[in-house]
Amino acid sequence: MDWLILPPLLIPFAGVFTTLLLRKRRRLQAWLSFVFIVTALAFSLFLAQRVIFEGHTFVLQSGQWPVPAGITLVADPLGVFMLVMTQLVLTAGILYATGSTEKVVQYPTFYPLFLGLATGLSGAFLTGDLFNLFVFAEVIVITGATLTGIADDKYGVEAAYKYFLISTVAAVLFLLGVGSLYASYGTLNLAQLGELIQTGELRPLALAGMAFLTATFLTKSAVFPFHFWQPDFHAAAPTAVSAMLSSVVVKLGVYGFLRMTSLLFVNEADTLRLLLVILGVVGVIYGGFGAAGTHNTKRMLAYSTLSQIGFILVGIGWGTPFSIAAALVFTFNHSLIKAAMLMLAGAIASRAPVKSASFEVVLGVGKNSPAAGILFLLGGMALAGIPPTNGFISKLGIFWSGVEAEQYLPLAVIGVASILTLFYVISAFMKIWFEKNPNVKPKQGDLLLAPALLVLLCLALGIWGDPLVVAANNITASLADSSNYISVVKEASAALLQIPQ
Fold first, then answer.
1. What are phi and psi of 61, to 5 degrees?
2. CA distance 204 to 217
3. pLDDT in tens, 258-302
4. Which DSSP letter does residue 129 get?
5. When comparing pLDDT for 269 and 234, which is higher?
6. DSSP H helical segments within 186-220, as ranges?
7. Mean pLDDT of all residues in the chain?
């Protein structure tokens, strides 16, 4: 059944070329893109059933070349969990784009680039090779920056340039980390690296590689103080794209830290986890105040992402099974919530006299769209962690895991800082739906179907979150013992060499 790894990766990749051929038939291009991503999601869900809930791990050696010569694809619980989360949000993103009034969605390259973004994200979570993680990360950068550069927003090119420049720095750091580890151990296969680093003597460049990878993943997730490019970039991107960037693209760094602390640098994980706790706490505070003090709905939500990523890093940093499971639940739920909120911000901006998410422009615009107001309020409740939403499950898990780990000081700080979320969400809601603005007139805008489905899913996971919690616990158990991941990859490679097991 190892072939099951391929469809979630190859289907969006095939969609890139198929939709390019249909560039003159925009409507068909849009709906075919939706079919491609839904099909990929269906395969990912089937894979999740086999991997996360039934305990299988699938390995595919591309080209039938053994490790370390061949490129390894691995479907393990963590990778598949992130894959399902990503493709679920990407499905909503394409659905939103089909009902968007932005000019950018009519560009012949919009949907091919969007599917290229899906390919990069899917590959990043399925690869078992560190260099190919770098390659897929660069695919994400190129497609994300291009989609932002062609945005309707006049600052799109500037934001794309900033992102590309910062990502180039991150790419250099990533390559330095890759080079350091390859020079030390002669392989970039994650399973081989994990085994060699855990069981052998730590080689001179190994810690340098760890430092370079840490800086890379901090930049990818826009963690303070590597955050400064993020608000401009996410605020200027097309709504369907910014919803992806601020919800799932930033989770690449989260995924990287989970791999580093559970597979690559297990013996050195305590030092890295302490750093994650410190930066996570600072991020919760800084992101909360940044969101409360900004002048734009999308920028507010972008700063909010800094804060929410902080909660996830704190959970990973505490390092207990409970806190890591809580961080995984938070990661999944935040992706749904943040995508929905950014879509609603874009939908409101599309109904403003001038298309902008600035508070002074959208002031009172919501009066003509009460349905969007209900969805925004429910999404805001989820973001703030109020029951019966999935956001409540997320924050409750993080807080209880902090109590279990007896981390009372950071817990108290993030607990107080999290109140800021409620403040800026209510403030934005009041400005958009209750302030008087005589210049506002009824106007058609972006369709609300995609954010409505995401908000309903947030409510469903808040009322019945058992499957997500069970999945997170199973993943945590697999991360606690990396020997299964290592042995499965070794067996797949040995089979190619016809070595008796």
1. -95, 110
2. 22
3. 999 999 998 889 999 999 999 999 999 988 888 888 888 888 998
4. B
5. 269
6. 190-199, 206-220
7. 89
Q: Has residue 190 been placed in a domain?
A: no
In a domain, 243, yes or no: no
CA pair distance 428, 433, nearest whole angstrom: 8
Query: Which residues, 6+ apart, have CB-to-CB distance to 424 below 8 Å?
Result: 288, 291, 292, 300, 304
pLDDT of 80 reads 96
pLDDT at 268: 87
Phi, psi of 65 (to 5 degrees): -95, 135
> Is the distance from CB of 58 to CB of 48 less than 8 angstroms?
no
| Nearest CA-CA partner of 166 in 211, 219, 129 | 219
**Range of the structural domain that residue 344 is part of:** 268-463
DSSP line for 381-436? HHHHT-TTSHHHHHHHHHHHHHHHTT-HHHHHHHHHHTHHHHHHHHHHHHHHHTS-
The answer to whether the predicted template modeling score (pTM) of the entire model surpasses 0.85 is: yes
Q: pLDDT at position 51, please? A: 94
The whole-angstrom separation of Cα 1 and Cα 237 is 39
Q: Letter for the amino acid at 45? A: L
Task: Give the Cβ contact number of residue 382 at 10 Å.
Answer: 31
User: How far is residue 491's CA from residue 482's CA, in Å, rounded to a whole number?
Assistant: 14
Instruction: Please give the angle made by the CA atoms of 318, 287 and 436, to the nearest 5 degrees.
Output: 140
In a domain, 325, yes or no: yes
Q: How far is CA 411 from CA 306, 308, 395, 407, 421, in A?
A: 17, 14, 11, 6, 16
User: What Cα–Cα distance (Å) separates residue 142 from each residue in 145, 334, 402, 473?
Assistant: 5, 24, 38, 34
Does residue 388 have a cis bond before it (omega within 30 degrees)?
yes
- Residue 178 domain flag: no
Count of structural domains, the chain? 1
| pLDDT band at 222; cut points 50, 70, 90 | confident
Q: pLDDT (tens digit, 9 = 90+) per residue, 119-139?
A: 999 999 999 999 999 999 999
Residue 227 has what pLDDT?
74
Chain segment 45-73, per-residue pLDDT in tens: 999 999 999 988 999 887 777 767 678 89
Please name the helix (run of DSSP H) or strand (run of DSSP E) that holds residue 473, with its range, or none: helix 466-480
Classify 128 as helix, strand or coil: coil
Least confident residue range of 221-230, 355-364, 383-392: 221-230
